[in-house]
Amino acid sequence: MTILMILLAVIGGGLLSVQAAINGQLGSTVGVFRSAFLTFSVGALITALLIFYFEPKQAITLLEVPKWQLLGAMCGVPYIIIMVLAVQRIGTALATIAVIFGQLLMSMLIDHFGWLGNVALSFSIYRLGALIFLGFALYLIYSSNKIREINT
After folding, report:
1. Burial call 46-58: b when 16+ CB within 10 Å, e when fewer
2. pLDDT one-digit tens code per residue, 88-139
3. Are 24 and 83 within 8 A, CB to CB?
4. pLDDT tens string 15-70
Protein backbone atom coordinates (compact mmCIF):
# COMPACT_ATOMS: atom_id res chain seq x y z
CA MET A 1 0.00 0.00 0.00
CA THR A 2 2.89 2.39 0.76
CA ILE A 3 4.36 1.89 -2.72
CA LEU A 4 0.96 2.64 -4.28
CA MET A 5 0.68 5.88 -2.27
CA ILE A 6 4.20 6.89 -3.32
CA LEU A 7 3.36 6.14 -6.95
CA LEU A 8 0.16 8.19 -6.72
CA ALA A 9 2.12 11.07 -5.15
CA VAL A 10 4.65 10.92 -8.01
CA ILE A 11 1.77 11.02 -10.52
CA GLY A 12 0.29 13.97 -8.61
CA GLY A 13 3.63 15.75 -8.81
CA GLY A 14 3.80 15.11 -12.53
CA LEU A 15 0.33 16.56 -12.96
CA LEU A 16 1.37 19.67 -11.01
CA SER A 17 4.21 20.21 -13.49
CA VAL A 18 1.82 19.84 -16.42
CA GLN A 19 -0.59 22.24 -14.71
CA ALA A 20 2.23 24.75 -14.10
CA ALA A 21 3.35 24.66 -17.74
CA ILE A 22 -0.21 25.05 -19.06
CA ASN A 23 -1.12 27.76 -16.54
CA GLY A 24 2.09 29.63 -17.35
CA GLN A 25 1.08 29.79 -21.00
CA LEU A 26 -2.52 30.63 -20.16
CA GLY A 27 -1.40 33.31 -17.70
CA SER A 28 0.76 35.00 -20.32
CA THR A 29 -2.21 35.00 -22.71
CA VAL A 30 -5.16 36.00 -20.51
CA GLY A 31 -3.52 37.17 -17.27
CA VAL A 32 -2.27 35.62 -14.07
CA PHE A 33 -5.44 36.09 -12.03
CA ARG A 34 -7.77 34.85 -14.78
CA SER A 35 -5.63 31.75 -15.10
CA ALA A 36 -5.78 31.20 -11.33
CA PHE A 37 -9.54 31.81 -11.34
CA LEU A 38 -10.04 29.19 -14.05
CA THR A 39 -7.93 26.67 -12.12
CA PHE A 40 -9.93 27.12 -8.94
CA SER A 41 -13.33 27.37 -10.65
CA VAL A 42 -12.91 24.16 -12.63
CA GLY A 43 -11.31 22.49 -9.61
CA ALA A 44 -14.22 23.51 -7.39
CA LEU A 45 -16.77 22.22 -9.90
CA ILE A 46 -15.04 18.85 -10.32
CA THR A 47 -14.55 18.51 -6.56
CA ALA A 48 -18.22 19.34 -5.92
CA LEU A 49 -19.24 16.56 -8.31
CA LEU A 50 -16.84 14.12 -6.63
CA ILE A 51 -18.27 15.03 -3.22
CA PHE A 52 -21.84 14.64 -4.46
CA TYR A 53 -21.26 11.23 -6.06
CA PHE A 54 -18.45 9.60 -4.06
CA GLU A 55 -17.79 11.24 -0.67
CA PRO A 56 -19.10 9.12 2.23
CA LYS A 57 -20.94 10.86 5.06
CA GLN A 58 -18.62 12.34 7.69
CA ALA A 59 -19.26 12.69 11.41
CA ILE A 60 -18.72 16.47 11.28
CA THR A 61 -18.98 19.18 8.63
CA LEU A 62 -16.58 21.86 7.45
CA LEU A 63 -18.41 24.34 9.66
CA GLU A 64 -17.67 22.24 12.77
CA VAL A 65 -13.91 21.66 12.41
CA PRO A 66 -11.38 23.87 14.21
CA LYS A 67 -11.17 27.07 12.15
CA TRP A 68 -7.38 26.87 11.70
CA GLN A 69 -7.89 23.70 9.64
CA LEU A 70 -9.72 25.76 7.01
CA LEU A 71 -6.60 27.86 6.38
CA GLY A 72 -5.09 25.11 4.24
CA ALA A 73 -7.57 26.00 1.51
CA MET A 74 -5.97 29.42 1.21
CA CYS A 75 -2.48 28.03 0.58
CA GLY A 76 -3.37 27.05 -2.98
CA VAL A 77 -4.00 30.61 -4.15
CA PRO A 78 -0.47 31.95 -3.65
CA TYR A 79 0.95 28.70 -5.04
CA ILE A 80 -0.98 28.96 -8.31
CA ILE A 81 -0.26 32.68 -8.74
CA ILE A 82 3.44 32.24 -7.96
CA MET A 83 3.74 29.31 -10.36
CA VAL A 84 1.96 31.13 -13.20
CA LEU A 85 4.36 34.06 -12.77
CA ALA A 86 7.48 31.95 -12.21
CA VAL A 87 6.99 29.51 -15.12
CA GLN A 88 6.71 32.43 -17.55
CA ARG A 89 10.05 33.84 -16.38
CA ILE A 90 12.23 30.92 -15.30
CA GLY A 91 10.67 27.86 -16.95
CA THR A 92 8.73 24.89 -15.66
CA ALA A 93 11.68 22.81 -14.41
CA LEU A 94 13.32 25.53 -12.32
CA ALA A 95 9.99 26.75 -10.91
CA THR A 96 8.96 23.18 -10.06
CA ILE A 97 12.23 22.17 -8.40
CA ALA A 98 12.18 25.41 -6.39
CA VAL A 99 8.65 24.60 -5.20
CA ILE A 100 9.67 21.05 -4.33
CA PHE A 101 12.67 22.38 -2.38
CA GLY A 102 10.34 24.67 -0.42
CA GLN A 103 7.92 21.78 0.15
CA LEU A 104 10.68 19.50 1.37
CA LEU A 105 12.14 22.08 3.72
CA MET A 106 8.77 23.01 5.25
CA SER A 107 7.60 19.40 5.44
CA MET A 108 10.75 18.44 7.34
CA LEU A 109 10.10 21.24 9.83
CA ILE A 110 6.47 20.14 10.20
CA ASP A 111 7.57 16.52 10.66
CA HIS A 112 10.34 17.32 13.13
CA PHE A 113 8.28 19.55 15.39
CA GLY A 114 4.94 17.77 14.86
CA TRP A 115 3.33 21.05 13.83
CA LEU A 116 -0.32 21.31 12.75
CA GLY A 117 -1.33 18.18 14.63
CA ASN A 118 1.01 15.85 12.74
CA VAL A 119 3.06 13.05 14.24
CA ALA A 120 6.62 14.17 15.07
CA LEU A 121 9.27 12.47 12.91
CA SER A 122 12.81 13.35 13.91
CA PHE A 123 15.20 15.09 11.55
CA SER A 124 17.98 12.73 10.48
CA ILE A 125 21.18 12.67 8.47
CA TYR A 126 19.23 10.97 5.66
CA ARG A 127 16.73 13.82 5.53
CA LEU A 128 19.58 16.34 5.56
CA GLY A 129 21.14 14.44 2.65
CA ALA A 130 17.88 14.60 0.71
CA LEU A 131 17.69 18.35 1.31
CA ILE A 132 21.30 18.83 0.19
CA PHE A 133 20.83 16.72 -2.95
CA LEU A 134 17.63 18.54 -3.87
CA GLY A 135 19.37 21.87 -3.25
CA PHE A 136 22.14 20.72 -5.58
CA ALA A 137 19.55 19.73 -8.20
CA LEU A 138 18.05 23.21 -7.88
CA TYR A 139 21.50 24.73 -8.42
CA LEU A 140 22.19 22.53 -11.47
CA ILE A 141 18.89 23.36 -13.15
CA TYR A 142 19.38 27.07 -12.37
CA SER A 143 22.92 26.88 -13.82
CA SER A 144 21.71 25.13 -16.97
CA ASN A 145 19.19 27.94 -17.49
CA LYS A 146 21.99 30.52 -17.11
CA ILE A 147 24.17 28.69 -19.66
CA ARG A 148 21.26 28.62 -22.11
CA GLU A 149 20.66 32.37 -21.62
CA ILE A 150 24.33 33.10 -22.34
CA ASN A 151 24.30 30.97 -25.52
CA THR A 152 21.17 32.62 -26.95
Report:
1. eeeeeeeeeeeee
2. 999 999 999 999 999 999 999 999 999 999 999 999 999 999 999 999 999 9
3. yes
4. 999 999 999 999 999 999 999 999 999 999 999 999 999 999 999 999 999 999 99
Q: Nearest to residue 23, comparing CAs of 73, 74, 87?
A: 87
DSSP string computed for 57-109: P-SS-TTTS-GGGGGGGGGHHHHHHHHHHHHHHH-HHHHHHHHHHHHHHHHHH
pLDDT band at 148 (very low <50, low <70, confident <90, very high): confident
Quick check: 19 and 86 in contact, CB under 8 A? Answer: no
Q: How many CA atoms lie within 13 Å of 106's alpha carbon, on the beta-carbon side?
A: 7
Residues 6+ apart with CB under 8 A from 108: 123, 127, 131
Question: CA distances (Å), 143 to each of 24, 51, 84, 135, in order?
Answer: 21, 44, 21, 12
Residue 41 corresponds to which amino acid?
A: S
